[in-house]
Amino acid sequence: MSDRLLNQFTNVAKKALEASKYSTTLGMNMAEDARRLSRAEMNEEDFVRKYQGMVQKEFGKKMELAGIEETKDGPKWGMVIDLRKCVGCDTCTVSCKAENLTPPGISYNVVLVEEKGIFPNVSRTNTPRPCMQCDKPPCVTVCPVRATYKSGDGIVVQDNDRCIGCRYCMVACPYGARSFDFGDSYEGEMLGYGAMTAPDHGMDRGERKKGHSPIGTVRKCTFCFHRLQRGEEPACVETCVGDARYFGDLNDPNSVVSKMASEARAFRMKEEYGTEPRVYYLR
Amino acid sequence: MAMNQSELKYEEETNPNVNVALRYKSWMVFLIVAMVVGGAAIGYRLVEGLAVTNLTNFVPWGAWVAFYIFFVGLSAGAFLLSTLIFVFGMVQYEKVGRFALFTALICMVVALMFIALDLGRIERATNTLINWNVMSILSWEVRFYLIYMVLLATELWFAMRKDLNLLARSGNLFKNKLASFLTLGSNDISDIAIKKDHSWMKILGIIGIPIAIIGVHGGTGTLFAAVTAQPYWASPLFPIIFVVSALVSGTALLLAMYVIQRKARGLEVELGMIQGLAMLMIGFLAIDLTLEFYEFLVAGLNNKPEKMAILSVMFTGPYAWSFWGVQLFLGAVVPIYIVANKRLRNSVTALTVAAICIVIGIIGVRFNIVVPTQIIHQLKGMPQGYYAPNLVEWLSSLGVVAIGLFLYSIGAKLLPLEVNDEEVIEHE
User: Fold this and answer.
1) Which of A247, B304, B317, B333 meets the CB 3.0–4.6 Å disulfide criterion with B313?
2) B17-21, B72-76, B85-89, B99-103: the lowest-pLDDT one
3) What's this model's pTM, rounded to 2 decimal places?
4) Closest residue in chain B to residue A110, using alpha carbons only
């Protein structure tokens, strides 16, 4: 019924278009795709991409995507760690190792312990240290092969398929947040350890084998990118027993992390190095 | 210019009293043994990866990086010495001119072998050329090294061209055939052509000076100085100290190699020239020590805790012996004493010992640059690292150096690197 009505309308529209000085086929095709668009068989981006050139030619006007701002400028991830809430239990370190299946000697996250004073007047500060995902990362500057770079979501990415293993980024990182994969394995104490690897930056590498990436290259914290893709928080944030870690979009001024990061208690590690870390601490 | 160049024969002068051939043979046997032993270590490392070294995530750079900057320094130093001869006309050193260029080339090959050995993924080394990060000094260095090596080879070819031709015409042995091949068909050895060769050498030398100073060795120093995270390296004086210490080690190595070669072949060594080189070497050493004195003095007065921690490891830590013993006593006090002492100054052997001490001292300098600063972790609260090269690293280093010496010995045997006395006069 509706189709017949539509077809009738189409004939009328066709006549109207033929009378106008503009292209009939373009009008008809756009109308048809517009119907697909309304039935969600086609998305707006594809529609605009398909007709942008032709519309420009025919009408001299540029087609713009409505509401594109949201998808273009996605979240820029950041982390806030409340040092008053951190109890120094190292759960983040352990859960990170379990989540990312890092080999012996590699820990993307550590907890630094600093004790001050003489007994009985002692204070102890626990400072968890993931990768700071700097906005001006020294590791990216020094890399001779552009194997490490700053991605749009704020994460410093390591491309293990390009890295030559020169370890220049490791000596250049002021936070010691990078590790070299020497190829060590827990196979002796944990049967089947090498059977799988955690997906670094969404790249599933399957079995951990000699000569395969990431062995022989530098590795680092990814803010648990594979979890972010599933809409989950990084493992260290989720497992923190004191709920000391917060994770979210620093681009959004109303997010919890943004508000906390602008508090008077907030500071960043080694700010004087000009690295602009995306991990904030609350004193 | 008294004689007709085209009639000049290239001849090897040897002293019949010494069994040169036997010495050469036993030297080569020694090198081959060293290469086999070292080669086994290199092979083990290639198969098993960097896990067989003593490197850790706390100290990611070790002996191979230290040797790499040491040999880059030797190369730059030897080349800069050659420019004193070919560009600035210090003809009194002409005899070592070609040796300087050839040494520079071989040292560069050795340096690249060391750094290749240090890569976690050697097979991806060409990535540095494909994916150029213009912000990365290391990325620039790779390019400078390659350009520099081409330049060295070209300049050496111009320096040898006449003698290659003479050698090609004087016999039918392998050596003569090789020389004939290496002339690349350029057979004109008239006075005009030789003059042209000299001007080419001068041009290449002039281009080479900024490449060697700023590009190759100053650049290698900048590679360290650019790292803000390592307070000991992040000093603008660092690249300059690199270049000056390169001149020290380059001159010393050349002096030692030249004397040893001549003596091994039972030939006379001219004391005057060796003394001149030794003075040059001590002069460079004095500048080097002054720069280092200010480096440490200013650091001490600035009293920045991170830097002081590293200096205290250097001066009093587990590597203090390397600083006080190797770098300062062996590398500075002993050679300065030898050159200052009236009796020792007139002995070629003593001056050679001084030069060898300096070369070993500079190895200490390179280790002290690379290792102690990494012992103190960038972050407070992290454990202190420790590093000393293990057997695999030592043996593979021995292997790489043996390969370099082997190439050098073959080159010195087959190529016309010696300069006849007549030519020294003829040059200017």
Assistant:
1) B317
2) B17-21
3) 0.85
4) B382
